[in-house]
Each structure stands twice: as C-alpha cells, then as structure tokens.
Design a protein that fits this description.
oxidoreductase, 346 residues, 14 helices, mainly alpha, disordered N terminus, heme binding, single chain, hydrogen peroxide
C-alpha cells in the first residue's frame, strides 16, 4: 500500500522545498552576489558559503565538519547537545552566540538552561579556526555549522547553513524566556510565531526531541498531577505511564535526585535522528506534554501522521525549518563582533 499524503503537510513541505531549490540554484549560478532572500526571518542578511565568497576563510566549513566528525566518533551525544544549545541561543535574543558567553548573570545561568552542554565542542572548533583564519569566523556561525554536521551524522539531512553571522555583545539570564515543556498547543504556537516561524516549523522542530534527554522534574506533572488535578494525564498511554512512573517517582523530598530520561525511549540510547517521535505522539506515548499536544490540533496531527508514515518528508521539512531557525535575529556586517574566544567578548 502506498504512502498517504495529507494535503496540508504535502503542500507546505513542497512549497518550502521549492523555495529552497530556487534560492540554492540562484546561489550556485551567482555565488558572489546572490543572497538568500526568501527562506527565513532574517535569511536575506546571510550568504551561501559566506567565507568562501568573500575569500576570508575558504575552507571554514570544511574545518568545522572535520572537527565535528572527530568529536562525534568519540561521543555521539554531541548531536542532541548541540541541537539544544542552538535552540537555546536562537530562540532567546537570536542566533548571536550570546548563550556561549560566560558570567554570573549570563544566559547559560538561567534555570531553563540547566544542563546545557557542548560548550567545550564549540571551544575546540573555535581554537582550530583561530589557528587557520584568525578573527574571521564567528562563534554564531560555528554553532550553526557544527549542529548541522553533528545531526547529519546522527541521521538528519545535511541542510544548507547560510553564514555571515556576527557575535552579540551581551548575555543576560533575564532575557531567557524559553517555554515550559508543559505548555499548551496555543502557547507553543504563539511562541514559535513570535520568532517568525509557522505551524510546520513548530511541528518539525519539536521532532528534534527524537534525540536527547530531559529531567524527570519536567514530566512529573503529567505522571501525578496533570493540570493540578492530583491525577495523571488522562490521555497518556497507561503502560507508558507506568513505565515512566518507575523511572520518575513522585518528588516529595527536598534535595531529591532528578533523574534524566530519554525524550524518545525508542531510539534514545543510540542518539539517532528518527521519525519514531511522531509515532509516539500518535500513540499517546510522548514524554513531554508539549510534544503530546501535537496530537490535539488538526494541523499538527496531520503533520505528525505524515512524518510518522514518511521519514523522508520529515527530513526534508527539518532541513528547511533548521535553516529558518538559524536566521532568527542574526547580526551581520558592522553589527556585533567576531569573538576570538566564544566564552567572552573581545
């Protein structure tokens, strides 16, 4: 039996892919002048192969890719770690590497950023690039390129990363407004729209939860006190509820440990990119409430059904949504700076 195509998701994905083909085709024909004018919130400010086009560090992307390949061989968890780090950067003040700055009141100190990793990965790559092309490649571009290369090794598509970002000057934990993983569909959609993203971007980017882990404290409300009812979520699959309750006991004591659980129990331990996340959404077996909410809206339910049935459709949409996310409120030209050390301003 052939795969089903739902009109909404098929048309949205095909429209996004058409735009990508037009843009990338133009860039290949006119690499010195063409810029990405249609793909994302601030994509028109970025350039395809920026460092090669402007002859400032021709092999910058190759240097990043090589380092990621070396690091990934030793630790496959870098893929979900970099994904989360990029999300935590772009969705706050924009893709300006502000999350990488150190300081007692910096973004990385915000409660919502507890457990962020991959900082040392960016540091290692930056060290290599500073040796090859001093003061040229921004930390913001390194973060975007390294994430693309790491998730590709984990099974995602190698999507286009337009470059030319510069690094921000400030990092303030008070600006971190990353949403709770228990928010409603409407609140989640409003948050994505505030960043210039649409319903397909939201459903696609939440699919990043096919990898990575979360703390039990983010899901105990679903297990024991859903919407302050004193009861578990009524829609959660009963066998899965029992399984998660064993891993995440009620939080009744001060100082109680807060275990980590896989966001996607099917493939979590392999740290691989897969569409089984959407199968779990459709089966009421999502770990986070924000993920399960995809089932309770007609549009995102259709998207989940399509991605569950067709992995390639998910991969294609992921490629475009990641490019769009990577263009949120970017700094270019004379804005910001090119940090020599990603952890501190020049």
């Amino acid at each position: 039996m052939g795969r089903r195509h739902y009109g909404l998701i098929y048309n949205l994905v095909m429209n996004k892919l058409f735009l990508a083909v037009v843009v990338i085709g133009a860039l290949s024909l006119f690499p010195g002048t063409a810029e990405a004018a249609v793909m994302g919130p601030s994509m028109q400010k970025l350039t395809w192969h920026f460092y090669k086009v402007y002859n400032t560090c021709e092999n910058a992307e190759n240097f990043v890719r090589h380092q990621v390949e070396i690091l990934y061989k030793n630790d496959t968890t870098i893929a979900p770690k970099l994904l989360r780090l990029l999300y935590s950067d772009c969705f706050v003040t924009g893709c300006d590497a502000s999350v990488l700055l150190e300081g007692p009141n910096s973004e990385r100190m915000a409660l919502a950023n507890r457990g962020l990793g991959a900082f040392v990965i960016i540091d290692k790559i930056k060290t290599v690039l500073e040796q090859r092309c001093p003061g040229v490649v921004s930390c913001a571009d390194i973060l975007n390129l390294a994430t693309r290369d790491a998730v590709h090794l984990a099974g995602a598509p190698s999507y286009p990363v337009f470059t030319g970002r510069r690094d921000g000057f400030t990092s303030d934990k008070q600006t971190v407004d990353l949403p709770s993983p228990s928010i409603s569909w409407d609140a989640s959609m409003a948050y994505f729209k505030s960043r210039g993203l649409n319903v397909l971007d939201m459903a696609t980017l939440l699919g990043s939860h096919s990898m990575g882990r979360t703390h039990c404290s983010h899901i105990v409300d679903r297990l024991y006190n859903f919407n302050n009812t004193g009861k578990p979520s009524p829609t959660m699959d009963k066998s899965f509820l029992s399984e998660m309750a064993k891993q995440c006991p009620p939080r009744t004591k001060k100082g109680q440990t807060d275990p980590l659980v896989y966001l996607n129990p099917d493939t979590g331990s392999s740290h691989s990119f897969s569409s089984s996340y959407y199968t779990r959404v459709l089966s009421n077996k999502s770990v986070l409430e924000v993920d399960q909410q995809l089932l309770y809206n007609d549009d995102t339910k259709q998207i989940s059904e399509e991605f569950s049935a067709g992995f390639e459709d998910f991969r294609k949409s992921f490629a475009l949504s990641m490019s769009r996310m990577g263009s949120i409120n970017v700094l270019t030209k004379n804005e910001g700076e090119i940090r020599r050390d990603c952890r501190r301003r020049n």
